[in-house]
């Protein structure tokens, strides 16, 4: 009988953005990224060993996300890395469920591959260190290397694994209000959009250079818990990233009217003396950095925009967690 393991991971929100892969391949990031692992939302993955040892030559791993069976090709590099790192020949069956919209610009691939790495390793009877799980998860999604760890996490440019900069306890009153402006999958997946940006945007290499220059400022802001500096650095990072994306041929704009409305709402909050700094990944959703005391004002302002925008209140969360979900 197959052994089953359960693992949960929170999505990784990049403050200094990751966008672009090194040309030499192996899914290595071209830019450094500093991120916070979100608590309050997660991916839960159940994985089991498929019967038959050794597996049949033509056997495939079977993965579903929110009940939809996935294309095995999307997961082949991940499982190849997993089996090589753990020294096993096992094939897996896994099912993941997200508590937030999937493939919609909310970093579901980061939590998805991180939870998959943890669940498969445990199902195979292995307990590798998080540094190895980070390298395994990165083979599926570079941002997933960060989701293995809790709190604030750095993935260097060209890095094969991420490292925790500080735990979630470092900044307990930091909050991230997620404004969900569109619940469906985005039209162009990040992986394809990254390649199109690198291949055709005249701003891509400027983005690579300036992104690296933002990292020291962000690290200093994190160390001193300077929310204004961190927020302005995050705003600069997403603006540069989306500028490079918009310069692709054909141009790609992920933003929707709700996205722009939330950006202006954050500007209005700051003008009124309420700290609210937005950041946007590859998609139409907006994540707002603020302090716990300002959450009611931020949620009320976003809620007043209408248009069916939903808010999720998140916080610096834990790394991988194993076992059945509480409750």
Determine and state the CATH class of the largest domain. Alpha Beta
Helix content: 25-40%
Given helix and strand content, the structural type is alpha+beta
Q: Alpha-carbon distance between the termini? A: 27 Å
Number of helices: 9
H/E topology pattern: EEEEEEHEHHHEEEHHHHEEHEE
- Strand percentage, roughly? 15-25%
Number of domains: 2
Q: Categorize the overall geometry.
A: globular
Uncertain stretches of 5 or more adjacent residues: none
CATH architectural grouping of the largest domain: 2-Layer Sandwich
Q: How would a crystallographer describe the biggest sheet?
A: 8 strands, antiparallel
Taking all Cα atoms into account, the compactness measure Rg is 19 Å
* Overall pLDDT: 93
Instruction: Find the count of extended strands (DSSP E, 2+ residues).
Output: 14
- In the CATH hierarchy, the third-tier topology of the largest domain is known as Ribosomal Protein S5, domain 2
- Assembly form of the protein: single chain
